[in-house]
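Record pair follows.
FIRST:
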Amino acid sequence: MIIEINKDIEKYQESVAMGLTAKQLVYSILALGSGCLIVFLLYEKIGLTFSCYVAVPVVAPIALCGFYSYNGMGFREVFTRYMRSIFRNKALVFKASGYREMIAEIRAKEEAEKRAAARKVKEERKRMQKEKIKSRINSCLKRNNK
């Protein structure tokens, strides 16, 4: 006796008819019925092709309600959340407070760093000049001592 068990138990669906769950079966019947009703009502007025074109936008959301699932949510919940995110969300606006003061402070810090770097360069040059002078004096003293 062999009993087949899905490897992923969370995705197990009990089928009612033709491999469809009860929810899928109900929405399939609703979609098929509404599509047929629209086609039969509009067939004589606009023709078969255009009546099918009119029926598809009505039938598709009904069918999606039964079959579509995203992160455990049905189509209706996903669609309502999507519409809410489009129309109800407020735009995020940056309001600067103290922007000019902050820029002035940053510029002051940069200028202070530049002055400190220039001062350091001057000190280094003075130190190098002093070393050159000392080395010249030492070389002159060594020549005189010989």
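SECOND:
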Amino acid sequence: MKALVMLMLLGTAAAAQPDPATRPPDTVVVAGVDDAPRRGTWVEAALGGGPPRPRCRVSGRHRLRGGDSCLGADSFGATFIELGFAYRFGIAPRTTLSAKLLGGFTDLSPGPVQSHGVVPDHVPGLHAGGGLALDYDTRLDHFAVGIDAVFRETFARYSLRLPSLAVMPRVRYVF
């Protein structure tokens, strides 16, 4: 009885293996070739942090008028909404170095300055900047990982100029 069961199991195992020549036409034969990384349109969102104390430059003339100064909130958020242009340089088969230029709108909340003795809730401004990015296109289809370093100079109300440096990791999904 045991011999019969073993013979049946061996027979079904041998029958379950299809002949490679009879492979259906819609399947892909893996030939050991590395697929090219996906490049094209992509979407990105970033979340970061910065130093807890502001470093701002307010012109001396403005500081004297109305008592305005850099003595605003010790901790504040900087929200950037921006558009930019980046150009990639290939440095290895799946690794690129990108140079980027960007500009957009900044919202500083709460304000890092005082206006007539009051710290404003929001200080809007415009910013411009540039940076570098190092990217690696993973073998997972659609995904890339990298690191960005971006310098921005924000020009806000109250003659405020605020430099910022952001270094952030990134995971990118390419359509």
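COMMENT: The chain has a mean pLDDT of 75.
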